[in-house]
Description:
The complex is a heterodimer.
Chain A: E1 4-5, E2 10-14, E3 19-21, E4 24-25, E5 32-39, E6 46-52, E7 60-61, E8 64-69, E9 74-79, E10 88-96, E11 108-109, E12 113-118
Parallel strand pairs in A: 2-12
Antiparallel strand pairs in A: 1-4, 3-9, 5-6, 5-10, 7-8, 8-9, 10-11, 10-12
Chain B: E1 5-7, E2 10-13, E3 19-24, E4 31-38, E5 42-50, E6 53-57, E7 64-68, E8 74-78, E9 87-94, E10 104-105, E11 109-113
Parallel strand pairs in B: 2-11
Antiparallel strand pairs in B: 1-3, 3-8, 4-5, 4-9, 5-6, 7-8, 9-10, 9-11
Amino acid sequence: AQKITQTQPGMFVQEKEAVTLDCTYDTSDPSYGLFWYKQPSSGEMIFLIYQGSYDQQNATEGRYSLNFQKARKSANLVISASQLGDSAMYFCAMRENSYSGAGSYQLTFGKGTKLSVIP
Amino acid sequence: KAGVTQTPRYLIKTRGQQVTLSCSPISGHRSVSWYQQTPGQGLQFLFEYFSETQRNKGNFPGRFSGRQFSNSRSEMNVSTLELGDSALYLCASSLGQPPNYGYTFGSGTRLTVV
């Protein structure tokens, strides 16, 4: 079963506007972490924001905020005041914190969303 | 502080050859994870090393192997290369202690098998 689902293969946003990138996840582990990464065409994965499953408040980092709805198992990334430099692939990822055999503690990634910022 | 360094950045190999990729983590980080990224399969976990021991392994054939040295630098090796091994290989460094530890990725090594 797919653990991370990003339903938007591509999105366009006008410069200076806000945009929401969707991410839903599936896990039975009560302890987990959710990550968002940005990947420009150069290939490097750039960490944006982190949300722990027990965190009471939504995470924020500058122009990035994470809309965490635990009951719905969603962790949407909100980028405010989009800039041209925000054009990139965005990946949602999850790490389950309980040991479950081989492959434990790995980051499981979604397929990504390609964001294009229009001047 | 210096980031995660992966070498080489680009590599072209012939089918049947073997290749070694290197990853130097952030100073003080004891965990190095490797991921393969392809257009078809996306990002897939290869393995993780922590304090010179392989802690976890993904679902890849035995042709994919790795190791970690006492200075936390890690290498991954792919033997008997196949065309399907063409990918971006990313390594991620972290402190390695749960529950809340982040991952810093390198710029990747882009491997092309011809």
